[in-house]
Amino acid sequence: MTAGSSAAIKRQNIVIIDTGCANISSVKFALERLHVAVTVSDDPAVIKASDKAFLPGVGSAQNAIASIANKGLIETIQGLTQPVLGVCLGMQLMTTMSQESGLHSTDNVLCLDLIPGKVERMQVGDLRLPHMGWNTVNPVNPANNPLFKGIGNGTYFYFVHGYAVPVYEHTLAACEYGTAFSAAIHKDNFYGVQFHPERSGDAGAHLLENFVNL
Questions:
Q1: From the candidates 131, 161, 186, 196, which is the catalytic residue?
Q2: What letter does residue 99 receive in the DSSP assignment?
Q3: Which of 55, 11, 59 is nearest to 37 (CA)?
Q4: Is 196 one of the catalytic residues?
Q5: What fold characterizes domain 3-212?
Q6: 35 has catalytic annotation
Q7: Fewer C-beta within 10 Å: the chain N or C terminus?
Q8: Domain range summary for the chain, segments of one domain joined by +
Q9: pTM above 0.90?
């Protein structure tokens, strides 16, 4: 990162949305390593006033949506107009619905409906679930893909998940584990990555910097 870009980043108001269902500290520390000042908040006014927002999440979609609803944040998140990056489960929560109800696959959980799409249990044949570890990611249309600027095909990122969004019209980058799935998705000001950039070394740091610089 150049001194100029670092200074520009420091002037931004970056907020990590405290959903009550995520390891906030790992994302916060990753951003602070890039000299990005970060606020963690579940206050709608603070979230709305941010220049960029992160939506992290871990666990099941059912529990995460319940936690967000209990905090009264669903309408706040749906109304954001600044760039928002969903991470791992946070990406899945951006879709219309998820099979990850904690009950059985026919019980769909209604998500935030920020990006059309459905999260499905991964069909991986004889491979193990969850999909855990490093895997290669291939950006779609990299010339017009600012989130993956400078990140080439076959770059490794770190994944931990058993559910995924199929590759479709909102796919920003793809990955393969048994079958192809969306490693990143995008619509309007909403971006999501299935992998953990905060655990993905230099490539993850590069992607976080790209997002902050959008």
A1: 196
A2: S
A3: 11
A4: yes
A5: Rossmann fold (3.40.50)
A6: no
A7: C
A8: 3-212
A9: yes
